[in-house]
Amino acid sequence: MDITVKLSNSMLLIYEDKKETEKLVIDKPMTVNEILMEIGVNPILAPMILIDSKRVGKNHIIDSNELITVIGPLAGG
Fold it and tell me: DSSP letters along 13-76, please?
C-alpha cells in the first residue's frame, strides 16, 4: 500500500528536517499512530489527523492507499 503523509505548516515548524510530504510503502495494515512513528513524528504532537478531509483517530487502521494529513498544535489568542 502506498501511503502519503502530508505535514501541516505547524508540524513543519516542529520538524524542520522533514519534507511537507512523506511517502511510505507498507505491506500490512497499520494504525495512523504506527505510521507516524515510522516516519519519525511523535503522535502526541499531532492533535488532528485527516483522511479524505475527514477527521480520524490515531488508532484508525490504514489498509489501502491513503493520503494522511497531519495537523500540528494550533495556537492563537
Answer: HH-TTS-SEEEEE-SS-EEHHHHHHHTT--GGG--EEEETTEEE-TTPEE-S-EEEEEE-----
